[in-house]
Specification:
The protein is α+β, with helices and mostly antiparallel strands. It has one domain. 38% of the residues lie in helices and 21% in strands. The chain has 6 helices and 5 strands. Strands 1, 2, 3, 4 and 5 form a 5-stranded antiparallel β-sheet that branches. A hairpin with a 4-residue loop joins strand 1 and strand 2. The longest helix has 18 residues. The radius of gyration is 20 Å and the shape is globular. 24% of the residues are buried. About 4% of the residues have low confidence.
Length: 169
């Protein structure tokens, strides 16, 4: 019985080694611009999306700004999942649109960039807060944000990044 238990344990460990991610793969996934952690908090006022998003940074303040940037990027490229009485919202653009309009989005998402004007209200993660996690390389902070979805869509339409809703008619 003891030998079969040890054999099963060795088999499970061997499977983990074969299917486990390397450090390089985990680092690439963590640093990916497509790795958004968010949850829908419910329906906001007309034209807004209430979401909870997580950001990363060496300091709590950096993680909060990363969370705000991630919130806007998620609305544009990934969409908002449904939950808490809200229906899912599809993304404004496909993921590959970033590469097609890289100069625009690099300027849009720069530090202090235009993306901040679409983040109406946030509950910034406070140091020592329940949603702040100290990690070996910095902090992971959760921020609740209200994103002005309609204004963001109109801005991207005015800049020619998103097609107008009536463009196909």
């Amino acid at each position: 019985m003891k030998k079969s238990f040890m054999g099963i344990m060795l088999l499970l460990m061997a499977c983990q080694v074969v299917t486990g991610q390397t450090r390089k793969e985990r680092k690439a996934m963590y640093g990916s611009q497509y790795n958004y952690e968010l949850a829908c908090l419910g329906v906001g006022q007309d034209g807004t999306k209430l979401i909870k998003v997580w950001g990363y940074g060496k300091k709590v303040d950096n993680a909060v700004y990363d969370a705000k940037r991630t919130a806007v990027a998620a609305v544009i490229f990934r969409g908002v999942p449904g939950g808490n009485g809200a229906a899912p919202t599809p993304s404004l653009l496909p993921v590959d649109a970033y590469e097609q309009s890289m100069d625009f989005f690099d300027d849009f998402f720069k530090d202090g960039g235009m993306y901040l004007s679409f983040v109406n209200l946030t509950t910034d993660g406070t140091p020592g807060g329940a949603d702040n996690i100290k990690m070996s390389h910095g902090y992971k902070v959760a921020v609740s944000a209200s994103i002005n979805f309609n204004a963001l869509r109109k801005y991207l339409q005015d800049k020619g990044i998103v097609k107008r809703m009536d463009a196909g008619f």
